[in-house]
Each structure stands twice: as structure tokens, then as C-alpha cells.
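ok so I'm stuck.
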Amino acid sequence: MTATDPRPSLVADIGGTNTRVALATGGAIREETIRRFRNADHPGLAPILRTYLDGAGAGKCAGACIAVAGPVRDGVATMTNLDWTIDAKTLEQATGAPRVAILNDLQAQGHALGHIPPGKLTPILRSAALPAPGATKLVIGIGTGFNAAPVHETPQGRLVAPSECGHVTLPVRDAADLRLATFIAEIHGFPGVEDVLSGRGLERLFAFQGKETGQTGDQTAAGIAAALDGQGPFGPRAQATGRLFSRLLGNVAGDLALIHLPFGGIYLCGGVARAFAPHLAAMGFTEGFRDKGRFAGFMEDFSVAVIEDDYAALTGCAVHLAQAQ
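replied:
not stuck anymore, here's the structure
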């Protein structure tokens, strides 16, 4: 909404499985307007947005901003885990909005920082010192996929740089890591970070643990997460999987911290991150994060928290639209 246009804006978060849509006024979403759509039930984004607007009786919008789980290049989004391609024209036609923006989903999470209630942030690691005002931050998404984005404060406003770091090579620290990388490469031809640190990655780690111990049977990511307390017939195997996941996440998050120097804090988001929030500290995340040799002490300067707000990307889209006026 602008000073001359009283209409609300539309914001959407398109993941690999679901799309969340809401109306926003200024930089705030209207929580009562949030709706969720299953992507498999629709041929593309445009029908979802038209269905939503028809149901909301909103008509044309003042602006529209979407966050997508995939790379955005020259205003065109290509979904990583969904066969959809989205451009500005598609968004304009579906919403009637004169101003549109397409962000990577981690960029939207970055724009949400500072607008998330403190009660929706779960601390995992606290830094040794208070960050300076305007210090760089980092968001890391662990859900259907994996990605990260640095958040920089500049004189021209906030800059959230896109990336596709979930597809970099999985780090190898020892012989067990090498066996894991080989195991993943045999399935996909390339051992990428996302192939391990994601929902389906958790399932592959469970399969790898089975191979290492001679156990059979697969399990879903949700089932593994539910058994992290060690209970049930496959509880011990789920715990071993959780420890491996947590240590690897710590390793990768530590690498990203050294690359971007986010003294303003590291924020984990996504369904898998939320599921692991109560277990990360006990399962080796801290040790993995600070396993940097002579830089182990330096790693104490970074704080880590989990974003518990499932709609933070929607807030980020609303904030980005409001600040871009």
C-alpha cells in the first residue's frame, strides 16, 4: 500500500512443497489472510494467486512480492525442487499489481530480520561480545532444500545477496565423511551439501547409517525427527543420524560464517531447522561449528539462533516492498 493507493499488497512464499500467500499493509502481513496451497495440486503459481485473490475478494493489488525456493536471475525465478518458472509478467498478470518483485526465499528471510518477534527466535549459541550496529547477518535455510544468504546494511538500505550454496561440495573431514560423500555420489553423481542437509538429506543420512551398521529399512524425515529422543524401534539409529546431521550442519554453518563474517548473528530457518532446534546443542552442532583449528576461539564471536516463525519469508516480502517504494 502506498500513500496514494489504499489497496493491500500480495506476498507469497513458494517452497518445494507448499505455497503460502497473504495480504500485507505496509511492511506488515495480515495474519488472518494467510492461506496455504499444495503445489502438486496446481500447474503453476498464477492459478494459485488468482484463486487466492478471488477467495479473498481483494481484486487487484498495490504491489506483489514473492519468495521462491530457487535462483532468481534477471527477474526470472527457476524453482530448484519444482518444475515452475516465474517471471515479472506472470506476477503482474496474476495480481494486477503495478509493482512486483521476485526474491529468493533466503533473501526474503534476510529482509525479515529485525521484524521477527523475540519470542520466535530460539538461541542455539551466544556470541562472546555484543555485535556492532549494522553488523552483517546470515540466514541459513534447512527445509526441502538448503541455502544461505548474507544480510548487509548499507547507506542505500538493506542488501540481501542471493546464492545457491546448497549445491557446493559436501565438506570431508575424515574417513567416515569420505564414505558418506561416496555414498551420496553413487546416488546422485555429486555429493552436495543439500543432498545431506535437508529433509530428504536427513533420509539419506539415515540410509547411510544403516549401511554403516548393517541395518535395513528406510524412514521419512518426519519419522526420524520424531525419534531423535532415541525412543522406538529405530530410535538409536535416528539418534546417530541426528548427531551426524547436527555435526555436519555445524561444519557447514561454520564455513559460511568464516566466508561472510556475520557478527550480527546467524539465523537458521526452515522446517528441518525448527525440528532440530531442541537437539542441536546436545547433538554436536557447537563442536562442529567451532571445529576450525586455530580459529576455534574466533568462532565464539558468532551467535546462532533458529527462526521459529513459519511466516518470516512473507514478512520479508512485505518489508522489501515497503522499503522499495
